[in-house]
Write a structure and sequence with these properties.
- The complex is a heterodimer.
- By secondary structure, chain A is of the alpha/beta class.
- Chain A contains eight helices and nine strands.
- In chain A, helix 4 packs parallel to helix 5.
- Chain A is globular and about 50 Å long.
- Chain B has one domain (25-240): MetI-like (MetI-like fold, Orthogonal Bundle).
- In chain B, helix 2 packs parallel to helix 5 (107-143) and helix 4 packs across helix 5 (107-143).
- The chains are: A alpha/beta, B mainly alpha.
Chain lengths: 240, 241
């Protein structure tokens, strides 16, 4: 059994984020609660990646507060993130996972078994000794997921993990994500693929131009969007 | 000391006599080659052990005066060997601060001088390599909460193929220099005589063909070491990607 969550709810309170003079996120307030995956939807440049990096604690907001489980803590021990283009360490597939386990303070004697278990979980068991950089894009993405899961996270942040993958690879990645979600890990995932929203999302956060346009259940978002930007996005219009 | 045994029979020397010495395994020449390699390889290994973590720390930490230190380190890549030799000479001479060690005019002093000479090269090149790699790795390592020491270790390991070239650059500088080893080693026959000091000596004696031959031998040795390093790199890259 899992210990009570220390990361959730994740509360962002009037977050302002500026990069130079450009405003990336504009007074965004959002609460992420335990449950089914939250999918962040929006066009490129709407602030999805910045929002995920803030949620991870990799960057601090220019203004506003972020709290994890009520605390403004610095430790990200129970959080993990997979970037859109994850960087593979120049070592074997197994060594990449072992590295993540070591950094998550997993004792040396438990690592080998955990590596096997995690690689099996993402379907890379047979590639354990392959050089990580020689893996295909989809395999690298799954290895990045294994590394993230090695941290035994309560909150798993995914930045368009299937953006450059073919349908078969996308399906494998989505299966891993859904299994993780069923095991009690809170998934927060950026996507601009509406099919993926249908397959995965419990609730949807719609961002446009750095502002929160809509936060509703996936069903409501897909069928009864309240904001014109969301409706336009769902129709397939070009929302900029 | 085998000081009586010279390289060959004086007037008969021709351009290829140095090669003959190599092929025939002339013990005096072999001793000189061994000493040159031992001194410069040891200096390169020590300078790598010191310079690489130094360069990586310089790449990954922010502190006042960092920019000055980087410029200084880059500038010191051009340290004149004779100046380093002179400084080490003063340090190690009988009346110098480290005179009590009694290592002046020994191979140990030559290693010290060459190490000082190449630490800046290795540190400066490592700094650049690691800084470039950090821009790629920073998000990933930060999200795994890798601490400062772990960052240095991880980036040095992941940059290992580039750093092998850095180490070779340092070794190349050490094996090729003559000024520092000449001053702190003293070019003592059979004890501190290296390839480069032999070449300088033979040139000053007017035996230009032998000096040229020794020069070619030196170049071949450096070439062989670089070729071996290249093969080792290809092999290990195939192993770990």
């Amino acid at each position: 059994m899992r210990a009570p969550s220390s990361e959730l709810p994740l509360v962002l309170d009037r977050i302002l984020f500026k990069a130079g003079v450009a405003t990336i996120l504009n007074h965004l307030s959002l609460t992420i609660a335990p449950g089914a995956p939250t999918v962040i939807v929006g066009p490129n440049g709407s602030g999805k990646t910045t929002l995920l990096r803030l949620c991870m604690g990799l960057i601090a907001p220019t203004d506003g507060n972020i709290t994890w489980g009520g605390r403004r803590q610095a430790s990200m021990a129970r959080r993990a993130i997979v970037f859109q283009r994850p960087v593979m360490l120049r070592r074997s597939t197994a060594a990449n996972v072992a590295y993540a386990l070591a950094k998550a303070d997993v004792h040396h004697s438990h690592r080998a078994a955990r590596v096997d278990q995690l690689l099996a979980r993402v379907g890379l068991f047979d590639m354990a000794q392959r050089a990580a950089r020689s893996l295909s894009g989809g395999e690298q993405q799954r290895l990045a997921l294994a590394r993230a899961l090695a941290r035994d996270p309560e909150l798993l942040l995914l930045d368009e993990p299937t953006a450059s993958l073919d349908p078969a690879s996308t399906r494998r990645v989505e299966e891993i994500i859904l299994v993780a979600a069923q095991s009690g890990i809170k998934i927060v995932m950026a996507s601009h693929d509406l099919g993926q929203v249908r397959r995965i999302a419990g609730d949807v956060v719609f961002l446009a131009r750095g502002a929160l346009c809509e936060h509703s259940s996936a069903d409501n978002f897909l069928n009864r969007p309240t904001m014109p930007e969301a409706a336009a996005f769902l129709r397939g219009d070009l929302v900029i | 000391m085998p000081s009586g045994e010279r390289f060959s029979g004086g007037a008969k020397i021709n351009f290829f006599s140095a090669w003959d010495l190599v092929v025939s395994g002339n013990p005096t020449l072999m001793a000189i080659v061994r000493l040159s390699l031992a001194v410069s390889l040891t200096a390169a290994v020590i300078a790598g052990a010191v310079g690489m973590p130094l360069g990586a720390s310089l790449a990954l930490t922010r502190f006042p005066g960092r920019a000055t230190l980087i410029v200084l380190c880059n500038a010191m890549m051009g340290l004149p060997p004779v100046v380093v030799g002179l400084a080490v000479y003063l340090l190690l001479s009988r009346s110098g601060p480290l005179g009590a060690m009694g290592i002046l005019f020994t191979p140990a002093a030559m290693i010290v001088a060459q190490t000082i000479l190449i630490v800046p090269i290795i540190a400066a090149l490592t700094r650049q390599t690691v800084e470039d790699l950090w821009s790629e790795y920073s998000d990933e390592l930060n999200s795994m909460e890798v601490g400062p020491v772990g960052r240095v270790a991880t980036l040095l390991w992941d940059a290992r193929y580039s750093l092998m070239t850095t180490l070779l650059a340092g070794f190349g500088r050490a094996i090729a220099e003559v000024g520092a080893v000449m001053i702190v080693g003293g070019n003592i026959d059979g004890f501190t005589r290296t390839m480069t000091t032999s070449i300088a000596l033979e040139t000053s004696k007017g035996d230009l063909p032998l000096a040229m031959g020794l020069g070619l031998v030196l170049i071949c040795i450096v070439l062989a070491i670089n070729a071996a390093a290249w093969v080792a790199r290809l092999w290990s890259e195939r192993q770990a990607g």
